[in-house]
Write a structure and sequence with these properties.
By secondary structure, the protein is α/β, with parallel strands linked by helices. It has helices at about 10-20, 45-50, 65-75, 90-95, 115-125, 160-185, 215-225, and strands at about 5, 30, 55-60, 80, 100-105, 115, 130-135, 145-150, 200, 235, 240-250, 265-270, 270-275, 280-290. It folds into two domains: about 5-200, Formyl transferase, N-terminal domain (Rossmann fold), CATH 3.40.50.170; about 205-290, Methionyl-tRNA Fmet Formyltransferase, Chain A, domain 2 (Roll), CATH 3.10.25. Helix 1 (about 10-20) packs parallel to helix 6 (about 160-185) and helix 5 packs antiparallel against helix 7. The mean pLDDT is about 95.
């Protein structure tokens, strides 16, 4: 079975490593050229793995470019795997392989289709989540399911990094046996349910701006949702310098500090405590962007 692998991020790397190790190295890897690595905060150069297994690599900028289509058509693949690739695959691309194109999505489809799924999963406080391999179609993430993993998480503590790592383990566990199954002619195509569908809007780095007038619970959740491998939640110190916050906890006891939203109430070494809009405070435990914590009582972030 001839296959092509298309991807450019950590998820792509995990998938490629897993299938190569299982004896299913693709016949061609297509990925972004290094000078476009800035498009993804979790970019990985797949050529390292490809070279290890003797797989040729083609660098492409656009999935549906005529030269990309021509390169794949020349190979006459049975299957294309599009894993960790944010571009839409058009009809001409999807029509090339005999069996079709398989994509990956870090949710239990049909729930949470679309973009920014992992941050939205945290922000929506989802308890039952998952990862899906599905057949690409005309719509966004709406093709038949090829394989799926489901798992429970604690919505009050789970971080974007934890969900991302779960998706890496899921793709590594799902894809090799699926290729084995397809290779012997057993091709799973389970239509997605027509109920329970939801679609996530794209999230941009600026969506991580902290509004300290929000409740401590909302802000702490935003910090967990926006952290690595994503750019992080951020605010500004009194000097205008941007401070990226990646870990916080609720300050105890409630009511100990009294201040305005966005005021720094205390500094303990590199940690500092900030008042939120509901009167509770957050202890900021991991942050970057300045050499020392902001001055006490400086207002931070967007005020309403």
């Amino acid at each position: 079975m001839k296959t092509v692998f298309v991807g450019a991020v950590e998820t792509s790397h995990a998938a490629l490593v897993s299938i190569c190790a299982a004896g299913h190295a693709p016949d061609l890897v297509m990925t972004l050229p290094p000078h476009l690595s800035h498009r993804h905060s979790d970019f990985v150069d797949l050529s390292v793995v490809a070279n290890r297994y003797g797989v040729p690599v083609e660098y492409i900028e656009k999935t549906n470019a005529p030269e990309t289509i021509a390169q794949i058509e020349a190979l006459k693949p049975d299957l294309i795997m599009v894993i960790g690739w944010s571009q839409i695959c058009g009809p001409a691309f999807r029509a090339i392989p005999k069996l079709g194109c398989i994509g990956f999505h870090p949710s239990a489809l049909p729930k949470l289709r679309g973009r920014g799924v992992i941050p939205w999963t945290v922000l929506l406080r989802e308890r039952n989540v998952g990862s899906s391999l599905f057949w690409l179609g005309e719509g966004a993430d709406d093709g038949p399911i090829a394989a799926q993993a489901r798992y429970a998480v604690d919505p009050n503590t789970v971080t974007a990094r934890e969900l991302y790592d779960r998706s890496l383990r899921a793709i590594s566990g799902l894809l090799p046996p699926l290729l084995e199954q397809i290779a012997v002619g057993d091709i799973p195509r389970e239509p997605q349910p027509t109920t329970g569908i939801s679609i996530c809007a794209r999230r941009r780095p600026e969506d991580g701006l902290i509004d300290w007038a929000r409740s401590a619970e909302e802000i702490e959740c935003l910090i967990r949702a926006s952290g690595p491998p994503y750019p992080g939640a951020f605010t500004q110190g009194s000097d205008g310098r941007q401070i990226v916050i990646t870990k916080a906890k609720f300050s105890e006891p409630d009511g100990f500090y009294i201040g305005l939203p966005g005021q720094v109430q205390d500094i303990d070494g590199q940690n500092f405590t900030v008042a939120c809009g509901d009167g509770r405070c957050l202890d900021i435990l991991e942050w970057s962007g300045a050499d020392i914590p902001p001055a006490i009582h400086s207002k931070l972030g967007k005020m309403s």
